[in-house]
Amino acid sequence: MDKGYEKEGFDGLRIKSSVAKKFRRFCKHYGKSQSLSLLDMILFFETNEISPLERFGETLSSLKFQMKRRFNAVIAIIKSIEKQQTEPTAFLMKKLFEVTAKEEAEESFEFAPQELISENEELEYYQKQYKQSQESYQDLKTEMTSLLKKVKFVRNNFGLGHYRLNVTKEELEQLKTKLNHVHHHNTPKAR
Predict the structure, then answer these.
(1) Where would one find coiled-coil regions in this protein (predicted)?
(2) Cα angle vertex 128, ends 127, 132, to 5°?
(3) Alpha helices in the chain (DSSP H)
């Protein structure tokens, strides 16, 4: 007897004999009575909200096979990424650290022996350099003052006015040359 349905009576259903044979085979295969098998089928359709006329297209075993293939494809992609990106990057990083460690080990500076000079000589050297830079500054100041005296404001009738520099082309080239070589007058001399 079926558990929970012992006190209920039986009703007859009219179904075709070929369908009845299939249904009985189905019930024997799953080891349940015909009433419980039919109840399980009805509950399955109701809980999953599907119709017995709908087709899923594929069986669960074929879906399982497809999922296995997908998992294998994902694993292959991860292995490919590891082989083509992670391993070469790790190798390059390792080589880089080896090279920098080697360079750090090789970096031992040896300074050439310095020529010792007295305090007075050093003071004299810096005073001379200071005097030269002051003279260079005064020369530049004089040149710029004379240049600014040659600048005239010209008023424009149709817009803003502008400044005009009244020098010849040769004077301007001399000034450019002089300004380009100003820093060369201040080079420190070898001791």
Answers:
(1) 123-157
(2) 115
(3) 17-30, 34-47, 60-81, 87-106, 119-149, 169-180
The residue type found at 89 is T
CA angle 176, 177, 178 (to 5 degrees): 90
Handedness of CA 185, 187, 190, 191 (dihedral sign): positive
- β-bridge mates for residue 174, sequence order: none
Q: Any idea where the domains of the chain sit in the sequence?
A: 17-47, 60-105, 133-186
Nearest 5°: CA angle at 71, between 64 and 61?
Answer: 5
Q: Is 39 exposed, middle or buried (0-12, 13-18, 19+ CB in 10 A)?
A: middle
Mean pLDDT of the chain: 81
pTM above 0.85, yes or no: no
- Summarize pLDDT for 145-158 with one digit per residue, the tens: 888 888 898 888 88
